[in-house]
Amino acid sequence: MNLEAWNTGGLMDQRPIGAPSAPDLVSPYRTFTRDEWAHLRADAPLTLSVDDLTKLQSINDPISLDEIVAIYLPLSRLLSLYVAATQGLFKATQRFLMAEAEVKVPYIIGVAGSVAVGKSTTARVLKALLSRWPNTPKVELVTTDGFLLPNAELERRGLMQRKGFPESYDSAAILRFLSDVKAGKRAVSAPVYSHLVYDVVPGEQVTVERPDILILEGLNVLQASRLPRDGTIIPFVSDFFDFSVYLDADENDLHRWYVNRFMTLRQTAFRDPRSFFRKYAEIPEDEALSIAEQLWTGINLPNLRENIVPTRQRASLILTKGASHRIQQVALRRL
Q1: Backbone phi and psi for residue 208, each to the nearest 5 degrees, phi listed first
Q2: pTM, full prediction
């Protein structure tokens, strides 16, 4: 299953692989090969070192300086242009409305994609690059994991086996958080999630203080709700985004990465006595492998197919990874 690759590169109109051949089908994206996209870096400076990358990457998600230069520096350059243009549009609107100067409106970037695709690494790399622009903007990163319902509530609702599905989140809390941030409010707080204990941490919060840029990373941030027949306003999380990135990969690769990560964690984080998954570090390897396969097949794969992949075409930018995690293609939505 090749998720959303487009046939040829550059500035031509393309169709998705596997889509019906139709002479009048026009893609909403411009697609680029890795080399074509890398050329768009122009003079964007490399501000990260190998040591920086070691701290930023997630387990089983390799990333190199070559990847930064070829993919993320052009993206950083593009975002710098988009942010400046959005700020100019905001000022123009204020002049048109003859309104007094308001507090700055943060530029919000969403990062979406499957479990094990590398969203966390991408979000952290973007945060590091954007915060090192010459004007040193204030960049914050928040994940939607903190907005998961606590395990006790998931158990009460019979949703523990649906953790990560849209219904397992406190959607109203996410929308309140984004609305307050976008309104320029001070000290907007979000709950904190611990992957170690596999639950929301009671009483612990992260506070966002009027950032210039906010990155929101999560599985379902591009999810759209069913539209009401009466036209009632029901906002989506993505309504607050100025730009969004979808990390894509072949389903078989995602499967392999997930299982490999699970098996790696058995030798690392799962061995912590506090870990929710401590029991998986102590069972035989073949049994652990079977459990990892069941978790992928029973939970993560259905979520991918039902809720995550369908949101891909709502992204501003689609980064398609190959089997080695190396990004092979970039699709940029036309304006």
Answers
A1: -105, 125
A2: 0.89
